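Researcher: We plan to redesign the surface later, but first we want a full-length starting point. Tokens attached.
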């Protein structure tokens, strides 16, 4: 497994363009070297993320800023650019977006995805979540949804899957590419209508609409109209 780095990230949400990494865990199977760091996202954590990961705002006080943490991770990677992970495209998208924000040189990564391998080799299982695969193979993950522990158990899962199938092509790393989604800002017409809805239903304090994109504003308007009904409005 020379050149492979098992990787996992925990984040504030699912959008690599808008959300931030709060933890990176990496493991080099060849040598047993470990990299792990919390990262300050510069914003409070959503309650659902704390419930999922166990990471709290208090734990992130004094954690490295993004630029420092990403630089340290890239230094750990050295010349190894093969990323192993469960749904590795998710981790890759967040890492690449962070690299670009920080202005660092972007390596050309390749990936090995144990989620895709699980779908091919274990089609009989009801789902292919990491915890399902860990239980299926009798593995142990002491802290699920923490970056390093998930990365390390993914190596064990990879080894189990590889033992099932001797087709070398199935386990070859695949070049990875990430293209950030283009987002159009909310239109003035949307802003005016959204503000009218919020004011009419006295919801101004419940929604932060300042940085919404055009598509996000559209979805929020539809959601509010469905929940609260139409409002008197002229433009």
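Model: Full-length starting sequence:
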């Amino acid at each position: 497994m020379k050149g492979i780095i098992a990787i996992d990230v925990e984040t504030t949400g699912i959008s690599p363009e808008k959300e931030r990494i709060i933890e990176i865990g990496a493991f080099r199977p060849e040598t047993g070297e470990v990299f792990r760091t919390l990262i300050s996202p510069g914003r409070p954590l959503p309650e659902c993320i704390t419930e999922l990961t166990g990471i709290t705002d208090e734990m992130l006080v004094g954690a490295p800023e993004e630029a420092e943490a990403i630089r340290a991770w890239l230094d750990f990677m050295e010349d190894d650019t093969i990323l192993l992970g469960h749904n590795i495209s998710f981790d890759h998208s967040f890492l690449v977006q962070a690299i670009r924000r920080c202005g660092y040189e972007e390596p050309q990564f390749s990936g090995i995805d144990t989620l895709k391998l699980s779908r091919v080799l274990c089609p009989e299982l009801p789902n292919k979540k990491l915890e399902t695969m860990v239980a299926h193979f009798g593995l142990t993950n002491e802290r699920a949804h923490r970056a390093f522990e998930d990365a390390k158990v993914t190596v064990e899962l990879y080894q189990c899957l590889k033992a099932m199938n001797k087709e070398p092509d199935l386990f070859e790393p695949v070049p990875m590419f990430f293209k950030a989604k283009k987002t159009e800002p909310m239109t003035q017409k949307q802003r005016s209508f959204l503000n009218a809805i919020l004011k009419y239903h006295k919801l101004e304090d419940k929604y932060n609409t300042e940085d919404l994109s055009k598509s996000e504003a559209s979805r929020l308007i539809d959601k509010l109209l469905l929940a609260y009904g139409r409002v008197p409005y002229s433009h």
